[in-house]
Design a protein that fits this description.
Elements (H helix, E strand, L loop, with lengths): L2 H25 L7 E9 L2 E9 H7 L9 H6 L1 H7 L6 E3 L2 E2 L1 E10 L2 E9 L6 E5 L13 E8 L2 E8 L4 E5 L8 H11 L8 E2 L2 E2 L5 H12 L4 H23 L7 H21 L10 H24 L4 H35 L4 H23 L1
Parallel strand pairs: 1-8
Antiparallel strand pairs: 1-2, 2-6, 3-4, 3-7, 5-6, 7-10, 8-9, 11-12
Helix pairs in contact: 1-11, 5-10, 6-8, 6-10, 6-11, 7-9, 7-10, 8-9, 8-11, 9-10
């Protein structure tokens, strides 16, 4: 292959990647609004629930245009929203199904709060409840509901998602927080779980794409496998700091700050790889460790804030955040081990450096796009 032909090929690859990445946010949102919060409170034979979801998700459940949804529209469709979400299957206790007696919907900012009450045939000590709407076509494939149920004098915490669409909770029957489930939630959150890449409809891009691209940008900037794993450990440190800050209620930055900061960190690391500043194998990468730690710090506030909304005890919150953090670290290691052989091989050979820069350019475009999108 002649030099001009090779240059044209590299340019073509770079352009194709750039166009593909620009299109990614339309088909696989970089950081979807894929968390809901369900609080269940029992009082003798009465069950009160409050389900909080993003207004866009609520609108889609009842066929409204998310761009035009407002408080009046949601309030008018309270019963339809209830039927499409928490009333889609009966809430059952030991002696049979409960009867719903109310349904309300309110809009606060971008959060739709769906509340309701049910009368049960006996005092509520256990709950069996399917929530099939989490498997429906109107929510993200990675949509999860964090659940806090107060049964008698005890609290139970669970996760409902596409793979676990049902609740089966009882007082004094299980630990308040399922450690393995929360570990797996951390793995899923960054797109490292197999079902994030493939479902019944075929192959698809994972919703943790921004995290994966960040890790790829770190690897494109060069270094050995062990050095990359060490740099990625900075992300875990950032998450650990977030855990402490959240548990002590010291800092709770808003999502409007966190989300653009995540996108900006992707762009910064990709820009460095594009400029070729880190293509030398003897570079220490200390600054990349710092960027990874900062990325972990801001990224971790999202899930920490979600658990705070459930008003868990300090012990349960620490336990849940520890499990989630462990899942994120395991997921990162899996992604690095899967991608590093190819990306580091490209980085080590000078003739492939144009390909490295083409990949970095694609990631830079994605990070910049997401940054502008999230600022807007």
């Amino acid at each position: 292959m002649t030099a001009p032909t090779g240059a044209r090929l590299v340019c073509a690859v770079g352009l194709a990647l750039a166009l593909a990445v620009v299109g990614l946010p339309r088909s696989a949102s970089a950081h979807p609004l894929d968390l809901g919060y369900l609080r269940i409170e029992t009082r003798d034979t009465t069950v009160a629930i409050a389900l909080d979801v993003h207004a866009t998700a609520a609108a889609r459940l009842v066929g409204l245009d998310p761009a035009t949804v407002d408080a009046a529209a949601l309030t008018a469709r309270a019963r339809a929203l209830a039927d499409a979400s928490y009333r889609a299957a009966p809430l059952e206790t030991e002696l049979g199904a409960c009867r719903w007696i109310s349904a309300r919907a309110t809009l606060t900012g971008s959060t739709a709060s769906l509340t309701g009450e049910a009368i049960c045939p006996s005092r509520v000590r256990s709950i069996r409840w399917a929530l099939p709407f989490v498997q429906g076509p109107h929510v993200s494939p990675t949509f999860q509901i964090l659940v806090k149920a107060q049964l008698g004098d005890e609290d139970r915490v669970a996760i409902v998602d596409r793979a676990r669409p049902s609740l089966d909770l009882a007082a004094a029957a299980a630990p308040a927080v399922s450690f393995p489930a929360l570990v797996w939630t951390g793995v899923e959150h960054i797109g490292a779980a197999p079902d994030q890449w493939h479902d019944a409809s075929g192959w698809r891009l994972p919703d943790g794409l921004d995290h994966i691209l960040f890790l790829c940008a770190l690897m494109l900037a060069g270094g050995t496998l062990w050095r990359i794993l060490g740099i990625v450990s900075g992300f875990t440190l950032g998450h650990s700091i977030t855990l402490a800050l959240s548990a002590l209620h010291i800092a709770r930055p808003p999502a409007s700050v966190i989300e653009p900061a995540i996108a900006l960190s992707i762009a910064v690391v990709a820009a460095e790889a594009l400029a070729g500043r880190s293509l030398s194998p003897d570079r220490s990468g200390g600054h990349r460790w710092t960027v990874a730690a900062c990325f972990g710090l801001v990224h971790g506030f999202g899930f920490a804030g979600a658990l705070d909304r459930l008003a868990l005890s300090t012990g349960d919150r620490l336990w849940a955040l520890l499990a989630y953090n462990l899942g994120v670290e395991l997921g990162q290691i899996a992604i690095v081990l899967a991608a590093a052989p190819l990306l580091l091989a490209l980085q080590r050979h000078r003739r492939f450096h144009p390909v490295v820069r083409a990949l970095a350019a694609a990631i830079l475009i994605a990070g910049t796009y997401w940054f502008v999108q999230r600022i807007a």
